[in-house]
Specification:
heterotrimer, B: about 325 residues, Rossmann fold, two-stranded antiparallel sheet, about 45% helix, C: about 325 residues, alpha/beta, 7-stranded mixed β-sheet, 5-stranded mixed β-sheet, about 20% strand
């Protein structure tokens, strides 16, 4: 039975791709993993790879054609199968009558359905899966609707892969533990098996099978991947660096310590950002569809590292809290985060995010914006540096590297610069917070 | 006709004496009222003012009146689907009877029962019954209850000739007999169980013969003669009140109308019906008797029918001005 | 601590009846062989001696007559408790129960009441074959105006008979032949178990098992076995089938996400269908993790042969099997 090669769907909202060029001709013998054609979305070029060894047959489109995703673009003949000139003359895929009827009814090309039955026979469930139909219990459907979970992203553990209510709950707790949108999460992205990003990735070396373990990109991970990819592809990021003299903050922290009080860098930064955001509304915004919302409260997310990931609890209305109250809230939420007891409310509603990797010894870094927010502050470590003092003499000062990522669609360069200027000002003169 | 009535006067001399002229006059008036009610019921039905069916007792007024007058206040009545006359004879209010027939909230059963299920529980009328022989086993329970409560009541249960061929009839008569229950079983034999003539349904001459099989006294009387029915039922009731148990009284009568409104009456001839109407009509006979006995004048007899019709006119007006039951109350009365 | 007093199901019924008769002279018993014989299953044994033949009335073999006698007496101020020797024989009383007892009140515009109880033993397991083993409770569940009660324990038997006699409606009181000799705690003092009050007999998290009559104890045994496997059944006994208190059932299914209804009567057209339909139509639907299932009698008359009879109705093993399947998603 010829193997259909389909136009892969690799973006969450991607509906079609243009074929840039065919890299094979009909009759070419290909090995599994060989590139078959180069395609392009509006951003990147990709290669579609052979999924098996075989002989290329029946190219159905030519270069320049825009092909809907999941359409069959060509077939691979297996060893011993007779070559055919016409795609239409190919043996139709083996399928149960019910699957065939269902596919016909829904105008679905059975050629693009992967059969899971005996000898690859297409079963009803395969057609349903291809149609995006999910087998789920009423309980699963209710929970999914209540929490806006896409059931297709949830791995079902019930009979025949049926999604149970418990599966949705598992997905929910996973979501609470790893909110989508953190730059760091991209590091964990698994690579889709048949698609290669020809522009941004080096050609993969082929490691020995035993050197890896494979995890399918699915479930929550898939959602994170799609969201971050979308964020990075759709939001034009601009990055602004600033080195801030933390002497005054250090002094304040020292004095508080002498009084038996603790002021963490995170709490200080949250309060300072809230202050600066108050002066720079364009950064305290979210962009959804055609609407920009400018928020009147600064709900600041702070990344907290966990053993197996990280989580971003949100300090709501940070501008209204005293430094002391922010510190209390930071400690409380960090505690809850480590105990895994954060509620969905405590990790949502953020209008701005701070990601602090200074404690890991990172000097500086850039972060991907957490949509629908429009800015994120990446915090490196504080280092002692010689800086000229008022008289131009080198003086050792504690310097902190801050990098702001802002969505250029909403935030102009000047907006971002003003924010960074105000942030620096308040960090170098924390008494301003008293006003 | 005249000679027959003279004989009757002789035969019922004692009954006439004991009932007295007022009671006799009231009985005749009540028979007129039953007939007027039934005739109006039929008329209303044909005018499309009534929903459902009905079973008219025109021609059977004497049985109802004779039996009811033989009972005392506090006695119980169970009757059957052709029951308008029994209720009227038991003293039911024509207004509330008609209202029930017309399905109104002011009817005896708030419009829930209709023609076949009129009951007036307050006067111990435990209701008409849509099921042939349905009330007979219930009478056994009423009899038991009377006995256990040690009251002096009697239960009159009226059923048709058809009911005497139901199993329940046999179970009930036997139980009433072995426990000597205070029950009068009155079989109102109107000659036809729907279309089945008694001659074909029974291989005995009188249904009352069956009483012997249960060790009960049984008697057959002329059901078109209110005094004959009165006498037989009175005696049976007195026996019951004395603690001597149940009796079976068969009253032979005749229905003039079809079984129900959908009856073409293919099972009998017009001549047969006309013969009963002309020669054995219970109202005509009783009126003649009372005139001959000097209880009423011919002039009085002539006004009685109009009086009955006037009462029924009022009942219809009352009913038509009565509210229909509210759908909001549809669940009422299913459970106590 | 004093030991809890134990009675059999039959003794509990008898004690309940005795107390009712002693308190209220309107209460009397009527049925076949209930006097000297003491009832075919001994429930009324000794009551004739205590209350006399006028209040413990032996009848001829006249089931329509028994039902009618109860109706007439109830209509006129008494509180009769009739006995139908085997539930199968109630088919001979159906007209009186369905067309008279159930409807009188409604037909008379709410102006009469029929406070009667008709007791009858149903169920198989005695080798009595097809005409003495019926479970016909759902025939009555289908009739507006009747109430249907099915006690599953000695405690409930005594408490429910009291509530049934006190109720102003005709109550069909379905006992089970195999339960008569089962023992359980029964307080001596009179008490009522209210009608239409569904009881959660055992709490659990994985599957709601709604069981009636003898199936309650079988479901509890199944629950014990499954607990060893980590499967927790919640066992619910409606006790009164009509009018049904379904709220606890629906709440339970919202908790467990799964439901199995078990009864002895034939599955087709049985009470289980009603329970399943109510669950499916309720807010519990959105909590379901599995199809709602029934486990009930096969659609055949009860066979005589012991092995065949055993396999005709649900047993502990079949409940365990079905429950396990539902919880593990192997349906």
């Amino acid at each position: 039975m010829p193997v259909p090669i389909i136009m892969p769907k690799f973006g969450f909202t991607l509906e079609s791709c243009e074929i840039v060029q065919w890299l094979v001709r009909e009759g070419d013998r290909v090995r599994s993993g060989d590139p078959i054609c180069e395609v392009t979305t509006d951003k990147v070029n990709m290669e579609v790879e052979a999924t098996e060894d075989g002989i290329v047959q029946a190219l159905r489109y030519k270069a320049g054609d825009v092909v809907p995703v999941t359409e069959v673009i060509c077939y691979l003949l297996r060893e011993g199968e007779t070559p055919t000139l016409e795609a239409s003359a190919l043996t139709p895929p083996s399928a149960t009558p019910l699957a065939r009827r269902l596919a016909e009814h829904s105008h679905l090309d059975l050629g693009m359905v992967q059969g899971s039955g005996r000898n690859g026979k297409i079963m009803r469930r395969d057609v349903e899966q291809a149609l995006g139909k999910v087998r789920a219990t009423p309980a699963a459907r209710r929970l999914a609707a209540e929490h806006s979970i896409d059931l297709t992203t949830v791995q079902g553990t019930g009979r025949a892969g049926r999604v149970q209510g418990t599966d949705v709950q598992a997905a929910l707790s996973e979501q609470a533990a790893r909110p989508a949108g953190d730059a760091e999460a991209t590091l964990l992205l698994a690579k889709p098996p048949t698609i290669r990003d020809t522009q941004t990735m080096p050609p993969p070396s082929i490691p020995h099978e035993a050197d890896r373990h494979v995890v399918r990109l699915e479930g929550m991970r898939r959602t994170i991947a799609q969201r971050l990819q979308k964020s990075f592809q759709s939001a034009p990021h601009i990055f602004l660096d600033a080195a801030v003299d933390m002497s005054a903050v250090e002094l304040l922290r020292g004095k508080l310590k002498a009084h038996g009080e603790k002021l963490s860098m995170t709490a200080m930064l949250i309060k300072a950002c809230a202050w600066a955001l108050g002066k720079n509304p364009p950064l305290n915004a979210t962009l959804e569809g055609e609407e920009i919302s400018y928020w009147h409260t600064a709900n600041i997310g702070m990344a907290v590292a966990l053993k197996d990931g990280l989580i971003v609890p949100v300090i709501h209305s940070a501008e209204k809290l005293t430094l002391y109250a922010v510190q209390q809230e930071v400690d409380r939420l960090a505690g809850l985060a480590r105990e895994g007891k954060l509620t969905l409310d405590q990790v949502s509603g953020g209008t701005f995010t701070i990601s602090n990797m200074g404690m890991f010894g990172v000097d500086r870094f850039t972060a991907i914006i957490n949509p629908p927010q429009v800015a994120i502050l990446a915090v490196g470590r504080t280092v002692q540096q010689f800086m000229p003092d008022a008289e131009g003499k080198p003086t050792l000062k504690p310097m902190l590297n801050l990098t702001l990522s802002a969505d250029h669609r909403v935030v102009d360069g000047a907006h971002a610069a003003h924010f960074m200027r105000d942030l620096r000002e308040v960090l170098e003169e924390p008494s301003l917070l008293a006003w | 006709m005249m000679q027959l009535s003279q004989d009757l006067i002789q035969r019922y001399h004692d009954v006439i004496e004991s009932l007295g002229p007022e009671a006799l006059k009231e009985m005749l008036q009540a028979m007129h009222l039953i007939r007027a009610f039934e005739e109006r019921a039929e008329q209303l039905y044909m005018l499309g003012k009534v929903h459902g069916t009905m079973h008219l007792s025109i021609g059977q007024e004497a049985t109802a009146i004779g039996a009811a007058n033989a009972m005392q206040d506090g006695d119980y009545l169970l009757n059957h689907h052709r029951g308008h006359g029994h209720c009227m004879a038991w003293g039911s209010d024509p207004n509330r009877m008609m209202a029930e027939f017309m399905g109104r909230e002011t009817g005896y059963c708030r419009g829930r029962g209709g023609s076949m299920h009129i009951a007036d529980v307050d006067s111990n009328n435990l209701g008409a019954n849509g099921i042939v022989a349905g009330g007979i086993p219930i009478a056994v329970g009423v009899g038991l209850s009377i006995k256990m409560r040690r009251t002096n009541q009697v239960c009159l249960v009226i059923f048709g000739d058809g009911a005497a061929n139901e199993g329940a009839f046999h179970e009930a008569l036997n139980m009433a007999s072995i426990w000597a229950l205070p029950i009068v079983f009155l079989c109102e034999n109107n000659q036809y169980a729907m279309s089945m003539p008694v001659e074909k349904a029974f291989n005995i001459e009188n249904i009352s013969q069956r009483a012997a099989a249960y060790g009960l006294p049984g008697i057959t009387v002329d059901g078109n003669d209110p005094l004959a029915v009165y006498s037989a039922v009175s005696e049976a009731a007195a026996r019951a009140r004395r603690g001597e148990g149940a009796s079976l009284v068969e009253a032979k009568t005749y229905r003039y109308k079809g079984h129900s409104k959908s009856d073409k009456q293919a099972y009998r001839s017009r001549e047969e019906v006309r013969d009963w109407q002309d020669n054995r009509d219970p109202i005509l006979r009783f009126a003649n008797l009372l005139v001959l006995a000097g209880v009423i004048t011919e002039a009085e007899a002539a006004t009685m029918r109009d009086q009955a019709i006037a009462t029924i006119d009022e009942a219809v007006e009352f009913s038509e001005n009565s509210p229909e039951p509210s759908v909001a109350d549809i669940l009422d009365g299913v459970y106590a | 601590m004093p030991e809890l007093r134990e009675l059999t199901y039959a003794e509990a019924l008898r004690e309940g009846l005795r107390q009712l008769m002693a308190e209220d002279e309107r209460v009397f018993l009527i049925g076949e062989d209930i006097g000297v014989y003491g009832g075919a299953f001994g429930v009324t044994a000794g009551l004739l001696d205590q209350f006399g033949a006028e209040r413990v009335i032996d009848t001829p073999i006249s089931e329509a007559g028994i039902a009618g006698a109860c109706i007439g007496a109830a209509l006129t101020g008494m509180r009769p408790v009739g006995e139908i020797q085997f539930m199968d024989f109630v088919t001979l009383s159906m007209e009186q129960l369905v067309l008279q007892a159930a409807k009188v009140r409604f037909m008379f515009g709410g102006k009469a009441s029929v406070p009667m109880v008709l007791r009858m033993p149903g169920g198989s397991g005695t080798g009595a074959a097809a005409q003495h083993s019926e479970s016909l409770e759902n025939w009555f569940v289908h009739v507006p105006g009747l109430k249907v009660v099915m006690p599953s324990t000695p405690y409930d038997a005594k408490g429910l008979i009291r509530a049934a006699v006190a109720d102003n409606n005709p109550v069909i009181f379905v006992e089970h032949k195999l339960l008569y000799k089962t023992k359980g705690h029964v307080p001596e003092a009179p008490y009522s178990v209210p009608l239409s009050q569904t009881q959660i007999v055992r709490e659990g998290t994985h599957l709601t098992v709604v069981a009636t009559s003898i199936m309650v104890s079988r479901a509890l045994q199944a629950a014990e076995q499954l607990a060893d496997e980590g499967i927790q059944l919640e066992v619910i006994d409606p006790r009164t089938l009509k009018p049904l208190d379904d709220a606890p059932i629906i709440e339970s299914v919202k908790k467990t996400g799964r439901a199995l209804v078990v009864h002895e009567a034939v599955e087709m057209g049985g009470f289980g269908g009603e329970v399943v339909a109510r669950i499916a139509a309720s807010e519990a639907f959105d909590y379901l993790e599995a199809p709602i299932r029934r486990l009930a009698g096969l659609d055949i008359p009860i066979p005589y042969n012991r092995e065949l009879e055993y396999h005709t109705v649900p047993q502990v093993e079949s409940i365990v099997r079905e429950a396990r399947k539902l919880v593990k998603g192997e349906y």
